[in-house]
Amino acid sequence: xxxxxxIYIHIPFCAxxxxxxDFYSRAGCDELMPDYEDALIAHIREAAPTMAAYQADTxxxxxGTPSYFGAKRICNIFRAVKDxxxxxxxxxxxxxxxxxxxxxxxxxxxxxxGVNRISIGVQSANNDILKMIGRRxxxxxxxLAVKSAREAGFDNLSxxxxxxxxxxxxxxxxxxxxxxxxxxxxxxxxxGLKLEEGTPMYKEYFGSPLIPDDDTQAxxxxxxxxxxxxxxYKQYEISNFAIPGYESRHNLKYxxxxxxxxxxxxxxxxxxxxxxxxxxDLKAYM
Length: 286
Known about the structure:
alpha/beta; 9-stranded mixed beta sheet; globular
């Protein structure tokens, strides 16, 4: 049986940092984008001999905000991966996106190049909460982003939601889930807020009564599990729910200890018994 590989490509650029984010990403470094694109492509080509023994059946562009990095750059990098001759025709190719940086012409370009799955960071349907946590979009923009993705030909959409946010009530979470379901995505991820040391929200909200307590967060989680099941979303991981057949094949590689190779600062890899992570420093990585 042929060996399968997942490829993860980290795009560490953002228009601005969200208050809760602990992933490696940088804002205000747009001038480094062209050099970073070149560095990624050089690294992918350098790793070609290691990847030659595999067939890649998932490719995932995560971030950061890949949609902010630009569709043309994403397509150039994906083309470099395809040039290796290991990407299967039936591969799942995902790009993370934020509603404020999703444009119809860009989405059409990505779809033509072979990106076939978009994961959209919606997080909440409450515009006040979105602003509080540093998101740049409104829920209306999320609705328009989904509409644009559908118009561009994407039939596999995922949306991310967060519960346990500051001042978020159970009713507010229920409203977010209801409005998320009206978007009719094939996949929904529901993540409980974790205040990570060093983030702005940790400094502002750690120990604050505005953060829902553990019991309330547990209730929010169980409510999501039950509601999403009623609407046909099968829970296949702790935080992930999908219409059957639309489970994230790339995420499942991590759970099933499949082989994957990461590229970019902070990106992790697991190949055979070898585990490694690249430095969380953009300039050092380049």
